[in-house]
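Entry 14. Structure prediction run on the chain below.
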Amino acid sequence: MKIKKTIEKVPGGLMVVPLMLGAFMNTIDQLHIPVVMDFLKGLGVSPTADGHYEFLRIGGFSEQLFKNGALTLIALFLFCAGSQMNFRVGGKALKKGVLLTSSKYLTGLFIGLLFGYFFDPFNGLLGLSTMAIIAAMTNGNGGMYAALTGQYGNRSDVGGVAVLSLNDGPFFTLMSLGLMGSNFPIIAFVAVLLPIGIGMILGNLDPDIREFLKPGEILPVPFFAFALGAGMNFANFFNPSVVAAGLTLGVLTVVLTGGTGMLVFKLFKEKSQIAPWAEASTAGNAVGTPAAIAAAAAVAAGSGMMSAEEAAKFEGIANLATAQISISVLTTAILCPIAVIMIDRYQQKRGINGKLEDPLEGSSAKKGIA
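Output returned:
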């Protein structure tokens, strides 16, 4: 059976499909269907505090992995992802990576600030929050970027992914919320970012450790996705406002981060615009950001740096933001490659070959031959 290949046909499938499956299982649990509960009771499952029987609350390793394991698995993922972040990047690749990372982050931050100014930052237009906007718009799909630049771009475009890997995870979102007035103490940043930092140090000190941890960039993803889904209800996904919010996030991410990146590349005299549009996506791992932010808010509340009420707000919107970001992942996974193909065709008509380090080299050579 080609289960994995079938899942991978879905945009962001390794993240989205397990998330949906977890949400499906949790939805059944929350319906409290008598036949299902009688079956579980017959197996000897212990009831929950409110007297119900649920598939995802049977205790033991199963409950810890499939229901309660999201944060631990996300931490493992961040540790392994950090180990793949290389300190040594070629000059041109470094330039492109910095331009793309900064333009994508500043665009997401600006839109988040603008949204928070005009609407409720926790539950504004279409139920969107500044957290969901910043998490979706600042965190790009590195795998998609590498694939698209590998096919349509040049080596320095592909090399930029080493810097772009910095936007993996909750760091930029956490920093943005701090800039916007949420009082996260330093320990909240340390608690969230320590796995990335330790992984980065070990991966750069020892190539063998980097190679050993490389599968961890992929392996934990479906597991923490399922656990995240296990805290959600399908009613979220079938809510028209949630779907509309997710689609809006996806379109804004492609159009605004791709457009801003293109303008920045032009400002810095880069001829090919493949890379900015290849980065105009929402990463699948951004789905885990709301849970990480909620955990950081709990740390902040525990240290007295944030009120319990504000921390509860972050926890309260985590599931909704997760659903919205999931839809944005799907939307950008479809729109981003289309945008790259369109810009490549546009450049080709203007004699710009995005696969060359000097994009005009190919057209100049042709003119010389002619």
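The CA atoms of residues 242 and 324 lie 6 Å apart.
Filed with the rest of this week's runs.
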